[in-house]
Write a structure and sequence with these properties.
The chain is of the alpha/beta class. It has 2 domains: about 120 residues, Leucine Aminopeptidase, subunit E, domain 1 (3-Layer(aba) Sandwich); about 325 residues, Aminopeptidase (3-Layer(aba) Sandwich). The chain contains 15 helices and 20 strands. The strands form 4 sheets. Strands 7, 8, 9, 10, 11, 14, 15, 16 and 18 form a 9-stranded mixed β-sheet that branches. A hairpin with a 6-residue loop joins β3 and β4. Pfam families: Peptidase_M17 (PF00883), Peptidase_M17_N_1 (PF21337).
Length: about 450
């Protein structure tokens, strides 16, 4: 993983090149106040003050230059100078006016590369100076957590199965003195039957398991953090077409978010009793794969008629949610790459957010806006609960007709959450289909920073 630790440094007046970040509305006034050589350079580049305009500005000497970026991003946007973090040559930089603030994160992430399989261009570090040194450590940790999500999601299933998710949890537990418990084999089949059933067709090397990590003072409020860990999803016997299966290495994106958020919580030593749960499976096809029409028993005792083996994520989450609720958490958060319906409704950038608690939802959405990690709340509409009715069992796992697919999936999960426990479910894409500054195409953390800001404010 990229080492971010040296890329942000306290500004002690050391030599550095200057970056001018100018809003389009202020461009003409800024230009009028510049020396003639700057105005000449701007004219030579035919800059008009449009957002995205940029130019190298000459200084007094041959090696003396500064950078101009015309930018209409908010001052508190993490991505305000991310394009420069990607493109500038090796060196040390400072902003001409103000502090980088939240933009330090984008500067770091712009220099992250996933190079496990392909070496990129070798470039030296771009160091950013800041007069807010107290923000450096937190920003570096957040960048590392985001990079962890990206790296895990980008790793193909050939190199990342349930055992590798367990290994990541083991690293976290070792680093922070947490307790790790892994349930698999007969104990999994007996205690978490839906997790076992979904993963039973995988090879022995990719056997299903429930990974649990506990950390913190038992006297502190308990947070249950759950991440869907389907390391590859064929769709099961309701097999996906090739186009639908192409990105299914990312179906463990919920687990990646939960691991990264757990690391942030423990590193900051929030006043929480953390309970991380990752149901880790591969939804494979074999002679013992579960079938459409099978009736599954859950840890909660409820029976589920399986109407679609490609709606497997909610099955494994249900058993994990049940376990989480048995120890009376103050709050439950789950992350899952759960439904295509959420992507149809909201596109790739906006995790669909469901909650049984309005105050919790409002606080989370406010935190998301504050840190520029957008979420969009969708309803747990009680009127659609009837869509989960079954003639054979307590419920089906996938409603007929395809209506409100993200909502009916969330309603299914709600049946396994204690009614009085505040809960939020984030149906995230965990993937960026097109590159943006600081955000390359591929795996990405969507909804991580929002939840982190909420938890830090509540339990820091």
């Amino acid at each position: 993983m990229t080492d971010f630790t040296s890329l942000l440094q306290p500004d002690r007046g050391q030599p550095a090149r200057t970056i001018h970040v100018v809003h389009p509305d202020a461009f003409n006034g800024w230009l009028a106040a510049q020396p003639q050589r700057t105005r000449t350079a701007v004219a030579a580049h035919r800059l008009t003050g449009k957002a995205g305009n940029r130019a190298v500005l000459p200084g007094d000497g041959a090696e003396d230059w500064a950078m101009l970026l015309v930018c209409d991003e908010r001052l508190d946007s993490p991505w305000r100078i991310a394009s420069l973090g990607e493109q500038l040559p090796e060196g040390t930089y400072r902003l001409a006016e103000g502090e980088p603030g939240a933009a330090m994160l984008g500067w770091l992430l712009a220099q992250h590369r996933f190079e496990r399989y392909k070496q990129g261009d070798v470039t030296g570090p771009r160091i950013l100076l800041t007069g807010e040194p107290a923000r450096i450590d937190d920003t570096v940790r957040l960048a590392a957590a985001t990079a962890l999500v990206r790296d895990l999601v980008n790793t193909p299933a050939s190199d990342l199965g349930p055992a590798e998710l367990e290994a990541e949890a083991t690293k976290l537990a070792t680093a922070h003195g947490a307790t790790l418990t892994v349930t698999k084999g007969a104990p999994l089949a007996q205690g978490y039957p839906m997790i076992h059933t979904v993963g039973q067709a995988a090879t022995a090397a990719r056997a299903p398991r429930l990974i649990e990590l506990e950390w913190g003072d038992p006297k502190h409020p308990r947070l249950a953090l759950i991440g869907k860990g389907v390391t590859f999803d064929t769709g099961g016997l309701n097999i996906k077409p090739g186009s639908g299966m192409a990105l299914m290495k990312k179906d463990m994106g919920g687990a990646a978010h939960a691991l990264a958020l757990s690391g942030l919580i423990m590193a900051a030593r929030l006043k929480l009793r953390l309970h991380l749960l990752i149901p880790a499976v591969e939804n494979s096809i074999a002679g013992d794969a579960f079938r459409p029409g099978d009736v599954l028993r859950s840890r909660a005792g409820l029976t589920v008629e399986n109407t679609n083996t490609d709606a497997e994520g909610r099955l494994i989450l249900a058993d994990a949610l049940t376990k989480a609720g048995e120890v009376n958490p103050e709050l439950i958060i789950d992350y899952a790459t759960l439904t295509g319906a959420a992507r149809v409704a909201l596109g790739p950038d906006l995790p669909a957010t469901f909650s049984n608690d309005d105050a919790l939802a409002d606080a989370l959405l406010a935190a998301a806006t504050q840190v520029g990690d957008p979420l969009w709340r969708l309803p747990l509409w009680d009127g659609y609960d009837d869509m989960l009715k079954s003639d054979l069992a307590d419920m089906v796992n996938a409603a007929e007709g395809g209506y409100a697919g993200a909502t009916t999936a969330a309603l299914f999960l709600r049946r396994f959450v204690p009614a009085t426990t505040p809960w939020v479910h984030l149906d995230t894409f965990a993937w960026r289909p097109a590159a943006k500054p600081g955000r390359p195409k591929g795996g990405d953390a969507l909804g991580l920073r929002a939840a982190w800001a909420l938890l830090k404010a509540r339990y820091g």
